Amino acid sequence: MPIYLDNSATTPVRQEVVDAMIPCLRDNWGNPSSIHSFGRKAKDAINHARKQVAGLLNCDVEEVYFSPCGTLSNNVAMIGRARFAEANGMGRHLIATSIEHPSILGPAKHLEANGWNVTYLPVDAEGSVSPAELEAAITEETSIISIMWANNEIGTVQPIEQLAQIAAKRRIFFHTDAVQVPGKLPIDMDKVPASSLSLSGHKFYAPKGIGILYVRKLNNVMPVVYGGGQEMGLMPGTESVASIVAIGEAAELAHRHLISTQEQLFAMQKAIIDKVCTVDGVRLTGALDLHKRLPGHVSVAFPGVEGEALVMRADLRGVCVSSGSACHHGIFEPSQVLKAIGLSDREARGSMRISAGSFNTLEECNKAADILVEVFRALAASADLAAQSSDKSKRAQPGSAGFQPAST
To answer: Where in the sequence numbering do the catalytic residues fall?
Structure first.
């Protein structure tokens, strides 16, 4: 059985979540907009799920909106708020960071192409945003700030409460992509004065295709998709009742088991780091202080080896992880996140992300770490042999210092 350590990409669906979904698929399949008994039962199920999510976020139920995914939640928050700003003569200056998810950088680029001024804040070598640099970047025209709570690639957790407070003092709309946070860190919207926040169900043991957008009361966001009046008009379209019930159940479980899950993830994280980082040349990327890093998250760079090769070799040995580099038409492009924290292209191409989840055990994480150590060392040896072979070939070429033509 393969050891799955790619939980930052997606998680399995918890059995309790599956069990909660089944009645909605088999019996309670009515349209929530219908006023008959089938519709009312479906609507009640959605209302219950909204209360469960509000419990996770410590917010009012009226502030919770269900969406098809985290990407759409981010787009609605960014573009929807920008539409409101434009309609009300507000400034057109957006502040984001250089390590945001593409579902934030995409809307930012779109707004930039349509006349907005966008500031991309730098991060330090561990991926942290400086509150002082955020304050310095704010102008009279700033109307939106978007900063990711915790980074999916390097695991760094931002001082989100402090950053959100900076925006709140100036009455600037503050959005945070918190997709990686549920079940790993507490979320308390009483303490974090963000205007909006996005989540995605498949990152915390619900199925794919369901997300959440939190919008604080008195913060206006205009829709970017049009249709019916579902989700108070912000996310029109007939609701996927089973998926909404699923994310509600997952939210309640994440909130209920947070402390025990954190302890479990920290133990597995430390075990992996203690073994993998003993390999010469392997360096931890992101926050070095584990209390400033997502529990269970490990990201490393291994210069001289392609990340995709690491992933494929690990997969052949029964360990599922991921790489920060992306392949486009056979060309490996280093992650913009890794480059933003100062890694060279050579270092960034040799990246690996190992992310444990609540279904993993300490025993299998230790086993996986031993396998990964072997993979690192084997690929390093192969790379050394290839380099030596290339060096010999160069020395043997005509015109090179080491080439001696045969006498005639």
So the answer is: 327
